[in-house]
Each structure stands twice: as structure tokens, then as C-alpha cells.
Write a structure and sequence with these properties.
The complex is a heterodimer of chains A (about 300) and B (about 350).
Chain A lengths: L11 H29 L2 E2 L6 E2 L7 H10 L4 H8 L1 H34 L5 H9 L6 H12 L4 H8 L13 H25 L3 H9 L4 H12 L1 H16 L3 H6 L7 H11 L3 H31 L1
Antiparallel strand pairs in A: 1-2
Helix pairs in contact in A: 1-14, 3-14, 4-8, 4-11, 8-11, 9-10, 13-14
Chain B lengths: L6 E10 L2 E11 L4 E5 L6 H9 L6 E6 L2 E2 L10 E4 L11 H11 L4 H14 L15 H13 L5 E5 L7 H18 L2 E6 L2 H7 L2 E6 L2 E6 L1 H6 L4 H6 L4 E8 L2 E4 L2 E4 L10 E6 L4 E5 L12 E10 L3 E7 L5 E7 L11 E6 L5 E4 L2
Parallel strand pairs in B: 3-8, 3-9, 6-7, 7-8
Antiparallel strand pairs in B: 1-2, 1-4, 4-5, 9-10, 11-12, 11-14, 12-13, 14-20, 15-19, 16-17, 16-19, 17-18
Classes of the chains: A mainly alpha (about 300), B alpha+beta (about 350).
Chain lengths: ~300, ~350
């Protein structure tokens, strides 16, 4: 054939490679998620598992159809009427949002300093930033308790120095949760920021300086806008897991620190209301999906221009 | 200080670790002059340019612009702009904002900026692309935007780092003349850094030929081409034949016979090299019993003929075994084929002599 067909068929090997991630997502995300959606449409019950109907084919296809008709949106209705959930969502979003902004403010100077360090030092500095990951996440969060509590190291030191008379109430507050999230998720912010800054052509900064921009203007007009993708990626990587975070608010937060992860946990294990908890989880996912999809669409549009 | 030259570099030296990038370089560029820094890679021309722009500081010596010492002045406070080799266009800004960047830093008003950008786009002959991003432009268009952006703040001196390096050949030749024309029109001083001798010869009023951090020669294109000061300059610019010989009683004796070497400054008895351009060598058919022009004729054998359109190039073998390249314009003169004998002669004024290395 004289004409070259560019859309040639994929070989079997290529198809296998492409299929692998889809299979992974189907097995470990879509299947469990379908289960959660189904539970969220069920009713709580004093059974094992604690909801009904349980879908099976024990009573034939007609029985299955009858059980399907019992599914409903009661759990979601309950969610909408329950102020606890609304408050939990708002509080989660606020804490995660504040933590993301603090994380960005802390990580950006770090990323900038590492990207501007001598080339052979950079991997070492990145290594230091990631090093805490080699110890258990749980232990690192526990460590913050000894730092923050009333008779902890920080209060002890401040009182010994005579700066305060009585301990600052830091532990078991929303502030402690923010500190814990910032500390734990810092590398997720740092790495995309570093990649975005390090990848910039140094000639761009020189060009800006040459055209009369002061060092501050070079940063604001060139370095910062060119690291936008890193900022967005880092913010998503911190914000999304932070919204649903359970361990940090459970260990560092007070009884009044509402976060959706804790409320979910309570419904699942304390109240054994699986449908309500499932409905809350599905809603959370939907809430988080919106910003991601908006971001993806913006990226696509930019790529097409 | 109205008499001070626009740019004056005074014995500037710069080392990077063990590498000497600049070794006591001095030069002056006048107002409205088109100056070229020419040399092979690693000769220090880029370091010199970055010194003037303010991206490097000299270990010794200084840079003055209109008589004012620039030591310690950061790049954004120098009346100098640089057009980068990679163009370094801001990828997040459209063409308009790229060109307006320097104007905004000067705090110009909206209307003034719009008028100036339009004027510059017209100067570089690139209109109707204001809203595009750099990645939507062709290489030639990007080059023009980079030039317009560097010219926008109205610098007294524009530095151009290999301005044509990224363009394909045809576009390069066309752009050479355009840049020259823009320079003449704006009367801004241009200093172009290049490793391409054609670029320097075509565009510049004066050329500084650099090698190993030093200036070998500063002169007009005709000077450096016709009267190279060193053997390096002779070999770096254009085609050159080098023939080994010896200085004896004011004459050079070598494969082409004896030639007067009056002003070469070389001591009697010293080994020397004769340099002659291929186009300055005369060849004619061997006539039985005839004498060569200027009495310095020898016979050679044509080994290769290459027709190149405007010129024809010959490679000849001299009686002593040396090869000699000769070129001739396409029109007129007898023709030679491979194997023909040819009488070779050169006028004394065509020859340059250097000490043997």
C-alpha cells in the first residue's frame, strides 16, 4: 500500500500494557466504590452486615429485583437534614484549605532554595525533605502530641523562659490539626513545586532582569506564574487527602474538632450506620471531584491553544 | 563626559575555577556602531557579553557605559538589553506582553505601551500576532519577537547572542540584512556575539576576533579579512593557504619562490609561514619558456576541480608536494581539468607572513 496508515492496530503486548492500569482501577477503585454506593442506598438494620437488603441470588432473579426496589436515597436525605454532616464538611474543607495555604507558604521558599542550590546538592536536600517518610506516619503524628500538649516540650520551654505564665492551649485544637496536616503533607507540596521551579529556564529570569525587573519583580512576574502548575498540583495533592484525613484530627484534634473522616468513622464503627457513612463518603468524593475535573479541563484547554 | 565612548571595557579578566574565560580584554564601542565579537566556542565572547549585561562580574578590570562605571550595577539598572540565543521569550505571556515587559517595568502608560509595541512589531515586520503565545510562533517569528522585546526599552546598547544561530540557512541570510537595516535606522549600538564569520563580516562595522580569552585583532571586516594580524585570525576567517618557508634578507623563500617580506617584522633566518587567500592566487596555463607574473611563478598540477556556481575551486599540488587551494570567479579565464599543469603566481600584496608556530 502506498499510503501509510498512522492509526495502525496495537500489538497484543501494547494492549496488555494499556489494559493493566484500567484493570487496576477497576479492581481497586471502581469495584469497592460500587459496593459503597450500593450500601449508601440501603437501610441500616440490626443484622450482619448492618444494612439491608443484601443483594444475592438466593431467592432467584425475582427476589433480586424485589430487593433492588428496596434501595433508596434515605441515607442521602438524612445527610442533608443532619447538621452534623454539613458542619463536618464545612469544617473539613476549612481546615484542609487553611492547611493547604500554610503548606504552600512553607514549602515554596524551601522549593525555591533547593531549586537554586548548586546542582549536586539538590538531590541531597530533596532527600532531607523526604527523609521523615521513612518513619511511621503514626509515630510522627504522636510525636506532635508531646510537643503540643499543656505539659509538652514547647509549653515547658516557654514557661521556663518566663515568656508565658500558664500553658498555651495548643493540643486538642483545630490549630494542632492544621499543624499536623502541614507537617505530614509538606513533601507532597514541596516536590511538585520543586519540579516546577527547577525546570524553568534560567535565561527567563535573566531576560526579565535585563528588561528592568528587580529581583522581586522577576519572582512575581516570571518565577511565580511559571510555577503555577506545580502550585495547583501540590495544592490538590495536599487538599484532597487532608479533607478526608482521619488519623491527624483523631490524635491532635479536640472533641470539638469536626472533620468528615472522624464523623464517618463514628457512623461506621460507633453508630453502625453503614448506609449513612457510605452516603457521606460518596458525597465527599463528588465534592472533591469537582475541583479536579475543573482543573483537568483548564489544562486540556491550555494544551489545545 | 560626552566624549566617552558608549561602551568601554578596560582590561577585564574573569576566571571560572581553573578556566580563564577572559584575560585582560579591552575594547571600545562607539555610539551607533555595529560591533561583532567573533571567535570559536570557549573563546570568552559570551562571558564578555554577560559581563556587559551585568550577569557576571569581572575579577579585574571594569566595564564603563558612557563613561559611568558599571561595577556593582545589577542587570536591571543598566542601559543595555540583551537578545538571548534561546530568545528566552516568556512562555506564559503573549507576544504583546513579552514586548511590553520592559516598558511596564519603566512604568509607561497604557496608550504609550500599545503605541510602542505596535511600532516595534512594524520595525521587525511582524504584525497581527500580538495575542499569540511564543509556542504558537515559528522560529523566525520568535526571533523577531525577541529582537523587538530587547529593543522596546530603548537601550543605548543592544547585545545580541548568536542572533541567527537557531534559524535555517535561507532565513539567516535574509535576517542578517534586516538586522543591519534596523540597526542603521535606530542608530542604536549593536554588539553581536557570533562564531559565524559570515555573520560578522556581513553585519558588523568592526569585528573583534577572540581566542582563549584574549582579543587577537580588532578591525573592519576588510581589515581582518585582508590584513589578519595573527595566524589564528588568518585561519579562522575565510579560506587560507599556509605555506612554510624561511625569511632570508628581507625575502620569504618557500614553495612559491621568493617574495618580498618587507613589513612582516620577522627576523632574518627565521622560519615563517606565508598566508594567501585562494582567490588571490593567479593561475594560468603553462606556456613553454614563459615566465610567471612577478617572477614568483611555479608550476603545479591540478588535482581537483570543484564547481560551486559563483566560483570554481581548484586544488593544486606544488612541486614540493604541498597542496594549494585556488578559487576563481565563474566568468572568464582559461579552464583547467584534473591533471593539467598550471602556472601559479601571487602578487606580493596578497601575501601575509607569520612566525612559524
Amino acid at each position: 500500500m502506498p499510503e501509510c496508515d498512522k492509526s495502525r492496530r496495537l500489538t497484543r503486548g501494547e494492549r496488555l500494557v494499556i489494559a493493566a492500569p484500567y484493570a487496576w482501577i477497576a479492581l481497586f477503585f471502581l469495584a469497592p466504590f460500587a459496593l459503597i454506593v450500593k450500601i449508601s442506598l440501603s437501610h441500616p438494620a440490626q443484622t450482619r452486615p448492618p444494612y439491608e437488603p443484601v443483594l444475592d441470588l438466593s431467592s432467584g432473579v425475582a427476589g433480586l429485583m424485589e430487593k433492588l426496589s428496596q434501595l433508596g436515597f434515605d441515607a442521602y436525605r438524612g445527610l442533608a437534614e443532619d447538621n452534623l454532616y454539613l458542619d463536618s464538611y464545612l469544617s473539613s474543607l476549612t481546615i484542609a484549605g487553611v492547611a493547604t495555604i500554610v503548606c504552600l507558604a512553607v514549602a515554596y521558599p524551601f522549593a525555591l532554595a533547593i531549586a537554586r542550590a548548586p546542582r549536586r546538592l539538590r538531590p541531597i536536600l530533596i532527600g532531607f525533605a523526604v527523609a521523615p517518610f521513612w518513619t511511621s506516619f503514626l509515630i510522627r503524628v504522636y510525636a506532635w502530641i508531646t510537643l503540643l500538649k499543656d505539659e509538652g516540650i514547647i509549653n515547658h520551654a516557654l514557661m521556663a523562659l518566663g515568656l508565658i505564665d500558664s500553658p498555651l492551649p495548643m493540643f486538642a485544637t483545630s490549630g494542632a490539626v492544621v499543624v499536623g496536616i502541614v507537617y505530614s503533607y509538606l513533601p507532597f507540596m514541596l516536590l511538585p513545586l520543586y519540579a516546577a521551579i527547577e525546570g524553568q529556564d534560567p535565561a527567563l529570569r535573566e531576560a526579565a532582569a535585563d528588561l528592568g525587573a528587580s529581583p522581586l519583580q522577576v519572582f512575581l512576574r516570571v518565577t511565580l506564574p511559571l510555577s503555577r502548575r506545580g502550585i495547583i498540583a501540590g495544592a490538590l495533592l495536599v487538599f484532597i487527602p487532608a479533607v478526608g484525613e482521619f488519623v491527624i484530627p483523631d490524635l491532635l484534634g479536640g472533641s470539638d474538632t469536626l472533620m468528615i473522616g472522624r464523623t464517618l468513622w463514628n457512623d461506621f464503627f460507633a453508630n453502625r450506620d453503614w448506609p449513612a457513612a457510605s452516603a457521606a463518603a460518596v458525597t465527599l468524593l463528588a465534592l472533591l471531584l469537582v475541583p479536579i475535573l475543573l482543573y483537568e479541563r483548564a489544562q486540556l484547554r491550555e494544551g489545545r491553544r | 563626559m560626552t566624549d566617552a565612548p558608549l561602551l568601554s571595557i578596560k582590561s577585564a579578566s574573569k576566571r571560572f575555577g581553573a578556566v580563564t574565560a577572559l584575560d585582560g580584554v579591552s575594547l571600545e564601542v562607539g555610539a551607533g556602531e555595529f560591533f561583532a565579537l567573533l571567535g570559536p566556542s570557549g573563546c570568552g565572547k559570551t562571558t564578555l557579553m554577560r559581563l556587559v549585561a551585568g550577569f557576571e562580574s569581572a575579577d579585574a578590570g571594569r566595564v564603563e557605559i558612557e563613561g559611568a562605571d558599571m561595577s556593582g550595577a545589577p542587570p536591571h539598572r543598566r542601559p543595555v538589553n540583551l537578545m538571548f540565543q534561546s530568545y528566552a521569550l516568556f512562555p506564559h505571556l503573549c507576544v504583546f506582553e513579552n514586548i511590553a515587559f520592559g516598558l511596564r517595568r519603566q512604568g509607561k502608560g497604557k496608550a504609550e505601551i500599545a503605541a510602542r509595541v505596535a511600532e516595534l512589531l512594524q520595525i521587525v515586520r511582524l504584525e497581527g500576532v500580538e495575542t499569540r503565545r511564543p509556542d504558537q510562533l515559528s522560529g523566525g517569528q520568535r526571533q523577531r519577537v525577541a529582537l523587538a522585546r530587547a529593543l522596546a526599552p530603548g537601550p543605548r546598547l543592544l547585545l545580541l547572542d548568536e542572533p541567527l544561530g537557531a534559524l535555517d540557512r535561507q532565513l539567516r541570510e535574509e535576517t542578517q540584512f534586516q538586522i543591519k537595516e534596523i540597526q542603521r535606522r535606530l542608530k542604536t549600538s549593536f554588539v553581536v556575539v557570533t562564531h559565524d564569520q559570515d555573520e560578522a563580516l556581513v553585519m558588523a562595522d568592526r569585528i573583534a576576533v577572540m581566542r582563549d580569552g584574549r582579543i587577537e585583532q580588532i578591525g573592519s571586516p576588510t581589515d581582518v579579512y585582508e590584513r589578519p594580524a595573527t595566524r589564528f585570525v588568518a585561519s579562522f576567517i575565510g579560506q587560507m593557504n599556509f605555506l612554510e618557508g624561511r625569511i632570508e634578507s628581507g625575502e620569504f623563500t618557500g614553495p612559491l619562490g621568493r617574495l618580498p617580506a618587507g613589513d612582516s617584522g620577522l627576523a632574518a633566518g627565521a622560519k615563517a609561514v606565508l598566508a594567501v587567500r585562494p582567490e588571490r592566487v593567479a593561475i594560468e596555463p603553462v606556456r613553454e619558456g614563459g615566465a610567471g607574473v612577478g617572477g614568483a611563478g611555479v608550476d603545479g598540477v591540478v588535482e581537483d576541480v570543484a564547481f560551486r556556481g559563483e566560483t570554481t575551486h581548484f586544488r593544486l599540488r606544488l612541486p614540493g608536494g604541498e597542496t594549494l587551494r585556488v578559487s576563481r570567479g565563474a566568468i572568464g579565464g582559461p579552464s583547467f581539468s584534473i591533471g593539467d599543469a598550471a602556472r601559479i603566481s601571487i602578487a606580493p600584496s596578497a601575501a601575509r607572513f607569520f612566525a612559524s608556530e
